[in-house]
Structures are given as structure tokens and as C-alpha cells.
Design brief:
Layout lengths: L2 E5 L3 H12 L3 E5 L3 H21 L15 H6 L1 E4 L10 E4 L5 H13 L7 E3 L6 H5 L8 E5 L9 E6 L5 H13 L3 E6 L6 H17 L5 H11 L6 H8 L1 H15 L8 H8 L32
Parallel strand pairs: 1-2, 1-4, 2-3, 4-5, 5-6, 7-8
Antiparallel strand pairs: 6-7
Helix pairs in contact: 1-2, 7-9, 7-10, 9-10
Length: 305
């Protein structure tokens, strides 16, 4: 079992840690907030039960071994606030909040650890790999791994090959995806890559339609579900992603591509300012009970393409 470093224990970070530990890896889960780490481990235990319930049968690892019990899985995760604990990792995945100022501080610190042989994967919704590569003495270490939420259930990872990404880092990312039982689809570097360059535009237009009073949130999503056979409409998808992450992603796309179609809709900015961020806060375009049904699985999540 390789040791994988996972930076950030929010929704995506804990999902990545869960999926890695479930596929046999040891995980060093790092966050600056010890309370967040405690919450993440508690949530992983709950998520494990939900994942098992949502699958028709327990999913085996690629080598045929059944998934571990909760105690066994959690025993593989070491939670710490000490970045120095990454020194034993063979691969690092960064999942901190989708904010460039915060992310660049994290990556400057990673470069100072002086681990030149260790690939660094960035789990970002829209920020180009070129920005991260510029922070490293060896930019060939940097590769993108755009995981989809919920990570333990989603079968595909969008792997981003930056202009500076080395062959070793790309091969390591693809190998890790395979070990996690996921398919790696490799794309070239571009703001938003493939998935979010299309998805965020669709979500933003759906928000604009709601803002203009063209239709209700329920009917906008119902049209996508019934007309295009999507299992989830664009507004419910935004709630799942997190409206703050949607807005950060649109800000990046707008700033990088200089196209007004990516300018965040005022209604989105208003909801974020009010702290209505979707599922993680209990309200966004829709309301969610704290004990509502489990988060949607892969069959419930369709890219709006």
C-alpha cells in the first residue's frame, strides 16, 4: 500500500481520502483546522454506510478484494495539521478551497518541502495547471486530477496534462486512478478543462433564467431531466457542487477567457453572500433537510452537456 498525501479535508478532500483508503492506500489527510479533520473523519464513517447502501452490491477493489469495514478503512487515514507529515508520501493530491490566493500559498509550501520525485496533483474546478506549474522549481511534477463529487462513487477522473507536466507525473496519476478503480480521461490544460468549461456555462445560464423570472427552479431542472434524460438538473447540480465553488469557477473562467458569458449571474453572487451555498449549508436553489436522503450517486449526476 502506497501512502498518499491529501491536502484539505472539506467535501472533496474527505471524498478523495475515503476513495483512496477504500482502495487499499494509506492516507495522510492534512488540514490547518483540527476540528475540520475531526468532522471529516466522522463524515467519512457516515459516507461509507451511505455508499454501501447506494450500491446494488458492495463494490470490490480492482483486485477483487471486497471493500473494507469502516474501522479498517479509517485506520488507514492519519489526520494531522502538520504539512511535514507529507514527507513519506509517494503522491500528493491538493483539494483546498477553490481560491487562487489560498491555493498558491499551499503550493509554495509544498515546493519548500523539497520532494522533487513526488508528483503533485491539483484537484481544481477551473484554475489552469500553468498557474500551479509556475510555483514549482520542477514544474514537471504538476498534474491535474479533477475528481467528481461524490468521489467514492464517481467512476471517472478528468486528468489534466499541463504544458509542463512530465511523463512520470502523468503516468503516476493514471496509475493511481486505476488503483482506485476509476477511469482516467486525459485532457490538455485549459481554464475549466472540458467538464467545467461546459458545465459552469450551463449552470450560469440556468441561474440567469431563474433570475429573470423565465421559470421556477423546479421547472428548469425538470425540463433538463425530462427533455434530455438528465438525472439531475443544472440548479440541483450547482447545489451539490457548492454555490461558492460555482462562483469561484466562473470567476476564473471569466478572468482567463475574457468572455462575458462566464460572468457570474447576480443571483448566484447574492446567494453566496447570504451563505446559501447548497447542500453543504442546507439551502441553495433548493432546501435540504439535515437528515435528508443520501447524496446522489453516479447515476444521479449528469453533466449538463
Amino acid at each position: 500500500m502506497n501512502t498518499i498525501g491529501v491536502l484539505g479535508s472539506g467535501v472533496m478532500g474527505r471524498g478523495v481520502a475515503h476513495a483512496l483508503a477504500g482502495s487499499g492506500h494509506r492516507v495522510v489527510l492534512i488540514d490547518h483546522d483540527p476540528d475540520q479533520l475531526t468532522s471529516a473523519l466522522r463524515q467519512i464513517r457516515r459516507d461509507l454506510r451511505l455508499v454501501q447502501l447506494m450500491q446494488s452490491s458492495p463494490a470490490p477493489r480492482p483486485d477483487g478484494v471486497p471493500p473494507p469495514a469502516a474501522d479498517e478503512l479509517l485506520a488507514r487515514i492519519s489526520a494531522t495539521t502538520e504539512v511535514e507529515m507529507l514527507r513519506g508520501a509517494a503522491f500528493i493530491i491538493e483539494n483546498v478551497t477553490e481560491n487562487w490566493e489560498i491555493k498558491q500559498q499551499v503550493h509554495r509550501a509544498l515546493d519548500r518541502l523539497d520532494m522533487p520525485a513526488v508528483p503533485v496533483a491539483i484537484n481544481t474546478s477551473a484554475i489552469p495547471m500553468a498557474r500551479f506549474a509556475a510555483l514549482y522549481r520542477d514544474p514537471g511534477r504538476v498534474v491535474g486530477m479533477h475528481f467528481m463529487n461524490p468521489v467514492p462513487l464517481m467512476p471517472v477522473i478528468e486528468v489534466i496534462r499541463g504544458a509542463a507536466t512530465g511523463a512520470a507525473a502523468l503516468a503516476a496519476a493514471r496509475q493511481l486512478a486505476a488503483q482506485m478503480g476509476k477511469q482516467a480521461i486525459v485532457v490538455h490544460d485549459s481554464p475549466g478543462f472540458v467538464t467545467n468549461r461546459v458545465m459552469m456555462l450551463t449552470v450560469n445560464e440556468a441561474i440567469a433564467l431563474l433570475h429573470e423570472g423565465v421559470s421556477t427552479a423546479e421547472d428548469i431542472d425538470r425540463l433538463f431531466q425530462t427533455c434530455f434524460n438528465h438525472r439531475m438538473g443544472p440548479l440541483a447540480t450547482a447545489d451539490l457542487i457548492g454555490l461558492d465553488t460555482v462562483m469561484y469557477s466562473l470567476d476564473v473562467l471569466h478572468g482567463e477567457l475574457h468572455q462575458d458569458k462566464y460572468r457570474p449571474c447576480p443571483l448566484l453572487a447574492q446567494l453566496v453572500a447570504q451563505g446559501k451555498l447548497g447542500r453543504k449549508t442546507g439551502v441553495g436553489f433548493f432546501s435540504y433537510e439535515p437528515t435528508a436522503t443520501p447524496p446522489p450517486g453516479p447515476r444521479d449526476i449528469e453533466a449538463a452537456t
